[in-house]
Design goal:
The protein is α/β, with parallel strands linked by helices and about 230 residues long. The protein is about 50% helix and about 10% strand. The chain has 2 domains: about 140 residues, Rossmann fold (3-Layer(aba) Sandwich), CATH 3.40.50; about 80 residues, no CATH class. It is built from 11 helices and 4 strands. Helix 1 runs parallel beside helix 9.
């Protein structure tokens, strides 16, 4: 099976390039496609920006329609996986808006939406031992005060624990620097993460659903092809 994973930024790609093989093993293929921000779902589901702007939600209606056509007659099972942050949105409303995009596709690609609550850094904070391995001087009081998947300015909490001067110091350097630092955290923390002991509920939902998906979508022809390979 193939997983086509869409994420809102380069730090998300860095994270999932490392985590996905830990979750699904090496018997499946995947590609993580990063965008340059999450944006907003466009009114009437018609994109208002050029494709080269690469804003995930703005382009999502067009992207899912394209994947629907691409995967319609493909023998190998494939799914589009959209991973994004909840930020300050209502989870139920946001999910309904995402599914509305999918309902407007014909044919519909197999698609799953996974939302990090509140931000992707919640998945790092679900594995404090991994943070400690990457940043041995991380502040224990900040890490242990965090409640998993709470709405609490998540990336700022992580910055307060591991960045010199905390989030206040980092914000003063501008959001371009913030973005670079987030990518650095992803590169440093993710290799140490244990996907089976993470305490983030949203991460566990993502992990478990990803593992179940091949069984749900498995095509009989694929099973036959795999058996033939085993007999060779």
């Amino acid at each position: 099976m193939h997983f086509e994973i869409l994420v809102e930024d380069i730090s998300g790609k860095t994270t999932l390039d490392i985590l996905v093989p830990k979750i699904i093993g090496d018997q499946h293929t995947f590609r993580v496609v990063p965008y340059k921000g999450i944006g907003r779902i466009p009114k009437n589901l018609k994109s208002s920006s050029a494709p080269n702007k690469r804003i995930l939600l703005d382009q999502l209606p067009r992207l899912l329609k394209g994947y629907g056509k691409t995967y319609a007659n493909q023998r190998e099972s494939a799914a589009v996986i959209v991973v994004c942050d909840l930020d300050d949105q209502c989870l139920k409303t946001f999910r309904n808006e995402l599914f509305e995009i999918l309902l407007n596709c014909n044919p519909k690609p197999e698609t799953r939406f996974y939302i990090a609550i509140e931000e992707g850094e919640a998945w790092f904070l679900g594995d404090i031992p991994a943070i400690r391995s990457a940043y041995p001087s991380a502040k224990s009081d900040v890490l242990h005060a965090y409640i998993n998947d709470s709405i609490c300015q998540t990336w700022e909490k992580l910055a307060d624990a591991i960045y010199p001067g905390g989030s206040a110091s980092l914000v003063k350097k501008g959001y371009q620097t913030v973005g670079k630092e987030k990518s650095s955290w992803a590169k440093s923390i993710t290799p140490f993460m244990n996907v089976d002991s993470n305490l983030s509920t949203s991460f566990c939902y993502f992990r478990d659903a990803l593992r179940k998906l091949p069984e749900i979508l498995f095509i009989p022809e694929e099973r036959e092809a795999n058996l033939c390979k085993e007999d060779e």
